[in-house]
């Protein structure tokens, strides 16, 4: 089913935080951000942050956030509620972040992803991210992070994923 027509993607606002935090706790049970962290992240919009939320009626279907510093963009977080997965919403949210990074003149996007998170790694690979490193125990004992990177179109270095 490819029915994203029932979902609105728009910039996240403070009144989305409660629903976003509920999904965060479900998607990342061991490492969930607090609601205060989302408040703090939104305080950085638009200077160094950009956040999107996807809503279906009153429910938060997904969200994603970006940090930009100079020519570097970092995908801070991305999650889709289980009942809305496998419909292209994760890709849509990631595309919004990458478009914003390009608009801001960033030349590369970097992210950390749990080495055990196959769904997320496939999503990033589909968009051209490649693994450039590994952080041992980043998410806790025995839970490594892969560092993935994408050269953004329009940058002079576009075309590769090298560090
Ligand atoms: C990773 C995550 C955000 C992906 O969200 P999603 O909305 O399911 O992503 P997409 O729908 O774009 O892609 C997922 C799969 O559905 C497929 N798909 C997309 N549209 C589809 C459609 N209309 N019909 C059938 N399949 C479809 C994609 O091809 C993809 O397949 P693949 O995994 O075999 O490559 C989601 O699984 C999630 O929230 N996971 C938990 C949190 C997490 O790990 N976040 C990443 C932190 S780094």
The CATH superfamily appears as Gcn5-related N-acetyltransferase (GNAT)
- Poorly predicted parts: 158-163
Structural class: alpha+beta
Strand portion, in percent?
25-35%
Task: Going across the biggest sheet, name each strand in turn.
Answer: 1-2-3-4-5-7-6
What is the overall pLDDT average? 93
- What letter string, H or E per element, gives the SSE order? EHHEEEHEHEE
Helix content: 25-40%
Total domain count:
1
Helices, by number, come to 4
Cα(first) to Cα(last) distance is: 37 Å
CATH architecture: 3-Layer(aba) Sandwich
Number of strands: 7
| CATH hierarchy class name | Alpha Beta
Q: CATH topology, which one?
A: Aminopeptidase
User: Biggest β-sheet, characterized?
Assistant: 7 strands, mixed
């Amino acid at each position: 089913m490819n029915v994203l027509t029932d979902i609105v993607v728009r910039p996240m606002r403070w009144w989305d935080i409660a629903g976003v935090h509920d999904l965060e706790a479900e998607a990342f049970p061991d490492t969930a951000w607090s609601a205060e962290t989302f408040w703090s992240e939104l305080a950085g919009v638009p200077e160094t942050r950009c956040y999107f939320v996807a809503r279906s009626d009153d429910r938060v279907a997904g969200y994603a956030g970006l940090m930009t510093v100079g020519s570097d963009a970092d995908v801070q977080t991305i999650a889709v509620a289980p009942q809305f997965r496998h419909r292209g919403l994760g890709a849509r949210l990631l595309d919004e972040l990458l478009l914003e990074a390009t608009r801001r003149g960033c030349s590369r996007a970097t992210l950390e992803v749990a080495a055990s998170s196959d769904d997320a790694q496939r999503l990033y690979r589909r968009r051209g991210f490649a693994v450039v490193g590994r952080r041992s125990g980043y998410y806790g004992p025995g839970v490594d992070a892969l560092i993935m990177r994408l050269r953004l179109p329009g940058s002079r270095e576009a075309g590769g994923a090298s560090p």
